[in-house]
Amino acid sequence: MTSHRFNQPLGGDQMPRTGGPATMMRLPSQDTAEGLDACFLGIPMDIGTSNRPGTRLGPRQIRDESRMIRPCNMATGAAPFEHLQVADIGDVPINLYDLKKSVEIIAEHYRGVLSHGAIPLTLGGDHTLTWPILRAMKERHGPVALIHVDAHSDTNEEMFGETVAHGCPFRRAWEEGCLQNDKVFQIGLRGSGYSPGEFDWGQKQGWTVVRADECWHRSLVPLMAEIRAKIGDAPVYLSYDIDSLDPGFAPGTGTVEVGGLTTMQGLEIIRGCAGLNLVGCDLVEVSPPYDMAGNTAVIAANFLYEMLCALPGVPQRR
Fold first, then answer.
1. Could you report the per-residue pLDDT of 1-30, keeping only the tens digit for each?
2. What are the Cα distances from residue 148, in Å, to 37, 136, 169, 291?
């Protein structure tokens, strides 16, 4: 048997894929990010949602559907477990009865993760969670560049009179100075709105907005080359809402919109982040109660693995 310097996912020949630990990719688990280069962790939260609930069950289902993922990326040649120490560090102990308190809990938890120098890969959970993560990122790295893939801009001033909700995280992050405004990219926005200027707010701040209909019937490889050139070596955070995908691919989410991205375009976006100074990533809004075949969670698990493959320190051999 080959010995490894780094943690390895439990292989299918060692234990049937239907067994073994209920961790991301059946990786070893530990309580903190100490000694890790990257870590998977969940935020089982849906108290910020405005339509269909269930994303509090997302992290557990994504972990379960990750059991078939093998360690080597056959498309890019990336073998992250040969270069990074990775583990699953469990879930953030949020308060399911108090969204504002949960925001503070998340921010403090990520301060601890980042203090160890680990890059967090987050399993959501509703999109409210990205705001407190970006708050912790700012304290560690300063304002960051942002690649935000979503059907919605999530820049609402408020929802039902509340300023903390899954439709508001990037407005809050902007208000707190967490973002480098000339290096913010929103991809996949679409659907109906309350006014024709629904997606204009970000552009007024200097953000680049790429609507879903601009992506139809085209490869997003050239777009990602442009984004890489504009971001350069700035620290960058990737936030991926699964509802960016067309509901034909990912029906298991709370706020579906027709005419979305394909899974292939999603892969082009994530793989196109290789070479950037990624300091964190999240995959949010998976709602298992609306994911009857489990395909949404399967996609989410694979996208999180692709994010791991795109991290700094992982060679891309193709």
1. 355 789 999 999 999 999 999 999 999 999
2. 23, 17, 11, 23
Sheet strands side by side (includes 119-124):
86-91, 38-43, 119-124, 277-284, 235-241, 144-149, 179-189, 208-211
Give pTM, 2 decimals. Answer: 0.96
Q: Is the pLDDT of residue 314 over 80?
A: yes
CA neighbor of 33 nearest in space, from 87, 81, 93, 105: 87
**From CA 224, how far away is CA 266, in angstroms rounded?**
11
- Give alpha helix (H) positions in the chain: 58-65, 99-115, 130-141, 169-175, 200-204, 221-231, 263-271, 295-309
- Domain chopping of the chain, boundaries: 32-309
What span, in angstroms and rounded, lies between the C-alpha atoms of 135 and 179? 10
The one-letter code for the residue type at 18 is T
pLDDT in tens, 106-138: 999 999 999 999 999 999 999 999 999 999 999
Closest by Cα among 305, 318, 313 to 71: 305
Residue 172 has pLDDT above 60, yes or no: yes
Please give the CATH architecture assigned to the domain spanning 32-309: 3-Layer(aba) Sandwich (3.40)
What angle, rounded to 10 degrees, do the helices at 263-271 and 295-309 form? 20
pLDDT at 193: 87
230 touches 272 (CB < 8 A): no
> What's the CA gap between 157 and 282, in Å, rounded?
22
What is the token pair recorded at 248? Answer: 């034909």
How many Å separate Cα 176 from the centre of its chain?
A: 21
Distance CA 131, CA 59 (A): 18
Q: Pull the structure tokens for residue 150.
A: 């979503």
Q: What are phi and psi of 250, to 5 degrees?
A: -135, 80
Both tokens assigned to 135 = 């708050």
Query: Cα dihedral angle (33, 34, 38, 39), rounded to 10 degrees?
Result: -30
Instruction: Go through the chain and tell me how many residues it has.
Output: 318
CA distance 264 to 299: 11
Q: Which two tokens stand for residue 1?
A: 């048997």
